[in-house]
Structures are given as C-alpha cells and as structure tokens.
Design a protein that fits this description.
The chain has helices at residues 2-31, 39-49, 52-59, 66-75, 119-130, 144-149, 169-180, 203-216, 227-234, 241-250, 263-271, 293-304, 319-327, 337-369; strands at 78-80, 93-95, 98-100, 104-106, 134-136, 158-162, 164-165, 184-187, 236-237, 255-260, 276-279, 309-313, 332-335, 382-384. The chain is an alpha/beta fold. Helix 5 (119-130) runs parallel beside helix 14.
Length: 393
Amino acid sequence: MASKSKFQLFLFGIGMVLASLYVYKKRKIFKKRKQLKSVEDYENHAREKLPRFTYALISHGFGDIATVEENMAAFQRYSLRKRLFNDFPDLSITMQNNHVDLPIGIGPSTYKSWLWRDGDLCVSRAAGFLNICEIVPMLSDHSLEQIIEANASADVLKWFQIFICGDGYHETLVRRAESAGYQGIVVASGGYGYEDDFQESDWKLAITSIVDKLTALRLGNFNQMNPATAFHKHKIRPTVWKDVARLKSLTNLPIILMDIVTPEEAETAIEYGAQGIIVSNEGGKTVDSLQGTLEILPEIIAAVGNKLEVYVSGGVRSGCDVMKALALGAKACFVGRPVLYGLCYQGEEGVVQVFTLLKNELAKCMTSTGCTSIADIGSSHVVRSAPYDDDDV
C-alpha cells in the first residue's frame, strides 16, 4: 500500500512539472509580441498603456511643443531621389574609430525604469545585441558599471553622458566610466533641474504621482539619491567652455559635445578639442520655437567639414529620416523617444524591434537610391521639397 502511495505521489509530481512547463511555455507565447509596422504604432501603444502623466513625461516637450513638432516636420521637407538596379547595402560604419552595425544609436534617455523593470539594463542588452552605439545617461537608475556589464560582449560601443557638477563629482564619474570600459564622454549642455521635463500644465495630470515618482526614483550613479537631492548636493549646472578644456585634460577618451545648434558653437568645439558633436536641441524639452535639428545640420557641416564627426538627434522616426540626415552630412543619428516606446512595448525585445524596423527602412531607402554603403550616401540623394499649397492637395 505504501508502495502504491509513493507511485501515486511520483505521478502527481511529474504531472505538476509538466503542467508548470506548459503554463510557462504558454506564458512565454503570450508575452511574445509581434513587431509593429512603424515607430508611430509603438508610440500609440505607449499612449494607450502608460499612465497619462508618464506618457506626457517621455513624449511631450517644453511650452507649446513647437520644437518637438519642428524636429519631425523638418524631415518632411526633404524627398529622396530614386535610382534603379541596385544591390543590397552594407549599413555598418565606424564611430570614433569603433565599428558598429548601424548608423543609428541610442540617445541618453532617463526614466526607463518607469516603463519596464530594469529598463537601463534592457536597453543596454538591446544595444549589445544590435551592435550599435549607446549613450548611457548620467541620471540613470542603474550605475554606469551595471549598465556596461549587462552586455555579454566587451566590444559594444558605449559612451557616457555627463552634466557638470559644481562640486566636481562629474570628474569622478568620468574616471569610473574610463575604468569600466566606456569609449567616449558625451558632455551635455544642461544642468537644468528635473522639473524642466514637465510642461506647465502637467501638474493637472497627477500632482501626487509626480511627487511619489520623483521621490521614489533612485539614481545609480549618485548613491541611490533621488534627482532633487542629487541636483542640490552636487550643484549640477550648465556647461561652459572651460569645462570642456578641463575634461580634455582629465581623460584620453573622445569628447563629444551634445546640444550644438549653431555653426559658431561647432567651430568653437573644434578649438577646444572635441572629437565629435551632436546637433541636438534636447528633444525640445527645454526651449520652445527652435529650429529643427535637420534644418541646422547643413550649416554646421559647411562650417566644420571633416574636422570632427557630426551626429544628429531629434525628430528621427523612420529609416527614411536617417537616410535624409546622412545625405545632409551627419555621420550617424541618435534616437530617444522611439527607444522608450519600444521599451514600453516589450522591454529589450521591443527596443530590438524598433531598431530592426529602422534598419529595414534604411536598407530599403538605400537600395532605392543606389547606395550600397553608408559612404555612398550624399547630398545628391535628397532634394528639398517645395511646400504644398492647400489648393494643390
């Protein structure tokens, strides 16, 4: 009798294991989501899924969001010029002498943990899988060491973004980044408080949610302080040119200056020894009514030539947008909001899906315009479109 009970218990255990495996498999199937058709689809999903306040935080901009809209509208003023009978293109490039598989990188967005658990690590792993450049934000939830260690390969190109701290704490972070294996330092122009990420009307969305989230958020590079405490303790301030000179003396890593918006600033960046600049208006989050970054790009390229690498950020929503930016002289593009929309959709896999979408669109544009490598892309592949009159539509 005892033998029969043991056998029944054994069968029960086997059944439970098989049932658990079945449920796990089904759960994995249901969690796996198909790739959507456009970045706009990923944004629409984020709009529907996220709390209204959280969606506003990652998608909106300053004031009337005119700068955000202008960044995207600038790309629509250019059209591609088609050429036939072409081979499939090679999309790889070098950035600061490092090989990457795409001329599209991940910009330094914050608040990733609000969208997906361990969001910083998910994005880092996605960048490693795709072999693309990622700019890791100073104000990340995880430490810079945790983020770079999330990659299985040590060859993944990672740059570390810094804001200038009045007490010099950013210099400690630069040394940590260099020791951890980062290959570039991206210097942000900002120093504005986290409160500038909110529109004036956003308090109406959920004031208690704002307070709860900001006090709960912990910054991995600031001993788990919340943003308000970190900004106050370390006196984060705007960057000035002497800070760039100081950074050049601290590290041998390439210095890339972010938020450059005029030819004059670009020329000064060369004088101070910067190896790269990112044409950016901070995604329209700090000042309204600025020019779109694509509109500024040709002037800056004309001013600096090949003296440093020029990247562009802001308004990129498709592979065609990337093609237009490269044709106007950019070395590569960085994207921010599309990464967050993909992260919200399905974590690491969602980010990979967004970049796969951008990659396929760029490849199609290159094939259609006769470009078999990124080096082939030039100004002859785009034309500025005349604006339509209402009567012409």
